[in-house]
Amino acid sequence: STVLLNPRSQLPAPKEAGDVIGPLTLKRKRESEYIFCEHVKRKYDCRKCGGGRFCEHGKRRSRCKDCGGGSICSHGKRRYQCRECGGSSICEHGRQRYECKDCGGGRFCVHGRQRSRCKECGGGSVCMHNRQRSQCKECGGSSVCIHEKQRSRCRECGGISICDHGRRKSQCRDCGGSAICEHGRRRYNCKDCGGNS
Q: Is the whole model's pTM more than 0.70, yes or no?
């Protein structure tokens, strides 16, 4: 007969809640018996059942800032991701190792692009029309609103890139947009700032 495995624990899945699976020989615990809850998870690993892995805030005990979890450093970040602590996932360039192009991080393909967005590599974010899936109108991408515009830039939808004056936030003088220079002009059009025009 086929034995189904619990994907989280790789242990045989119980038929009913409260079933005991064991004994099993593990590296740390020997001859241990595991009791599964009604959510078909080990009780210790189940958030809904208040398993011991989770704190009173509903987070992994080791990762909870409020509880001072062991994985949290003195700067309030995950220890391995903290630049100040020299975390193991930080490369010599001060970036997340996985996201560093100079280190050949796994996020980037052989063409130097984000793997998921590379057309030549058939990235998962590229649709059949050879566009970013989320921005493709034909595919009904999540970034396209009912007015067939980029959702964030649509005035009718109140996109997050539109300010209270009905302009792009970055290009609004009244909002001090990042595309406006100190002379009150578009930065790339300002001669005094070394713009193109």
A: no
